[in-house]
Amino acid sequence: MYQYDVTIVGGGLVGGSLACALANTGLRVALIEAVSQQSRARPSYDERVIALSLGSQRIFEAIGVWPEMAPEAEPILKVRVSDRGHCAFTRLDHAEEGVEALGYVIPARAMGAAIQTALKYAGNLEIFCPAQLLTHRVGADGVELNLLADGESVSLRTRLLVAADGGQSGIRAGLDLQVREHAYGQDAIITTVTPDRPLRGVAFERFTDTGPLAMLPMTAGRYSVVWTCRDSETADLLMLSDQDFLDRLQVRFGFRLGRLGQVASRRAYPLKFVLTRDSVQDRLVMIGNSAHTLHPVAGQGFNLGLRDVAGLAEVLADCAAAGDDPGATETLAGYRRWRGRDQMATAGMTDALARLFVPDWTPLIMARAAGMLAVDLIPPARHLLARRFMGLGGRQPRLACGLSLDGGRS
Is the dihedral of CA 385, 388, 392, 394 positive or negative? Predict the structure, then answer.
């Protein structure tokens, strides 16, 4: 039977990042991934992108994968937030915060490729791929796992099991946990456009009566579109011709970037809220979408998951240095208190924003306008909002400060 200190189920961006972060801790790590790794995909006009906060970029830099990602990252220098049809706005600027960028927009493909490259050089890591977790049984001093790997049955034993298997987590589904969950009755339509007057580094979040519309700057003057619509409208929007869709989007967004053109294929994703009440169980931790799935407003979902990675990696690195058990209750207690606060606060904030900016009720509209203008006009309030957007609010893991897990500058 294979023996490990930490076993990660899910080798996507979150699970793979954790494996990279643990590379130099001395812990024996196993990574279980169901989908066989393919050769690197080629760049495409309409590829999926992720908005990284500054804190997330620092995490990637600290674990050594940012240099490979950086050439394809577009910096977010300014953010413009507005409420469609109403005189309300808030502006954030990297110069006011004294940082190189508030965040970055980067293809998921580039992130995955950099992580996979780093994993090849992790001497403490064994990867089971393609492999499926069939069962796991938690005992007093470890977890026994049964896998189906390349058609063969494999047994593992680990001191800590980490679930990073996504929003449809099979591990979470097999546990009797309290989970807050609700659908928004909305879909996110994702596509790419090229405006004729792009503004380098300027991101837009425009609240509308069907939900937020985000325009994220990409390389080569492109913009990634995240259009939240009522689920009853999705089919009609997807069936529109390219020009009709662009016309509808132009009316929705306006002409801040000039005329929009060259729309890519469109994909729709249903939006829901999922928050596990306690993502830490006996010898088990859930991170990323396995623990929380958020509305895309403000782009907090993946960044919250990456802070899970940084926090857990720090706890486990300190544990390894002290020679302690990584799955022991006392080891995980600090992580539970630390990450629980951030998970609850971020989930609550995004859920409130998703609900607050949809109702077309005059007193609420006036309150929203007053709040947005107050943030724009009061520097301390604007600074707090920017810190939250950059993922720098509250207690920061060492990795999010650009420090290696042994405390030195990376």
Answer: positive
84 located within any domain: no
- Summarize the confidence of residues 230-248 as an average pLDDT: 97
pLDDT digits (tens, 9 = 90+) for 275-323: 998 999 999 999 999 999 999 988 899 999 999 999 999 999 999 999 9
Q: Which two tokens stand for residue 315?
A: 């706890």
Give the whole-angstrom CA distance, residue 143 versus residue 157.
6
Is residue 406 included in any domain, yes or no? no
d(CA 19, CA 125): 8
Is the pLDDT assigned to residue 361 strictly greater than 60?
no
What are the start-end ranges of the E strands in 56-196? 74-76, 78-83, 89-93, 103-107, 125-128, 131-138, 143-149, 152-163, 179-195
Work out the pLDDT band at 53, boundaries 50, 70, 90. Answer: very high
Q: Which among 239, 255, 271 is the end of a domain?
A: 271
